[in-house]
């Protein structure tokens, strides 16, 4: 009995792998008809399929034979009861539903829009948005759906996010001189914009003067115009804005006027596991003094930095001349009403100011 059972099993295996196919430049519809007649099975197909095939294989299963015949033309088959149906993967085909199934996948780190932009164009025809932005519906033949799901696992990764500490600091240039620091204006390191009162420049400084800067800030000789921590991931932007004032004297009577300068730092770039490649754009809005009037001006420059995490970087941002006014006079007399102005005097001092951008980044390790 065991001997007959073994022979029966071997016979069934041999029968299952007994399909031989040989086609040369044969119309796919004719080839399917011949295969159906040869194996005694019903094979029907979408009227839209067309093309010619050349294939040769022996001792394979019927399903494998269908795979080999349809692969070059991009068609797919499914078995409905005891009938094999061959259809096209075109979603617009009326019979697309016969060879396709629906699969709902959860997205862990990216949204549907992120996925749609990242997937190859040929795959986007088979994915659909759901009410949940962290899910995607795949509607495709099983093999295409499997390829899409495999690609999604490669894309749906945790996105590195950097936390960037930024300070915009205003410093009197004379304080730089006290510490022996010269402002580097070498042409190959600097981009500048001059309009008479403003010189806008971005320049990675080679001098590590972290202690000096902290000392100037704590003593009040340097002023922090703005500070904050920005979160940034690749292909996104973040920005911070600082404000300061520029003093001017107008006309022969030295009328003193102050105008506000807006300095905006826009950061973009790419965030990696061990560093960040950032583009810093500095946008400045200020004024040009024309006799007794002011004309609004603006300028923007940018520089690229490859920064390591947990290391401080200082970047030259803006330099400008500002006039400061100091009132003096004869003590006691200058404060007398009406006639006090006769005993007052004012002095005006022009100072060179520098704005420095401080940056220090770390890997936050989570998605925005």
Question: What descriptive keywords fit this protein?
Answer:
single chain; 368 residues; alpha+beta; Phage tail protein beta-alpha-beta fold; Ribosomal Protein S8, Chain: A, domain 1; six-stranded antiparallel β-sheet; four-stranded antiparallel β-sheet; 9 helices; 18 strands; disordered N terminus; Secretin/TonB_short_N; transport; GspD/PilQ
Quick structural gist:
It contains nine helices and 18 strands. The chain has 368 residues and is an alpha+beta fold.
Describe the structure.
It is a single chain. By secondary structure, the protein is an alpha+beta fold. The protein folds into three domains: 2-88, Phage tail protein beta-alpha-beta fold; 100-155, Ribosomal Protein S8, Chain: A, domain 1; 161-363, no CATH class. The protein has helices spanning 2-16, 28-39, 62-70, 96-99, 112-118, 121-124, 142-155, 173-178, 210-219, and strands at 19-27, 42-45, 52-60, 75-80, 83-88, 101-106, 127-129, 135-140, 161-172, 191-194, 198-204, 222-233, 237-250, 255-271, 275-290, 293-308, 312-329, 344-363. The strands form five sheets. The chain has a six-stranded antiparallel sheet. A hairpin with a 3-residue loop joins strand 10 and strand 11 (198-204). Helix 2 packs antiparallel against helix 3 (62-70). It is rod-shaped and about 120 Å long. Residues 2-15 and 185-202 have low confidence and may be disordered.
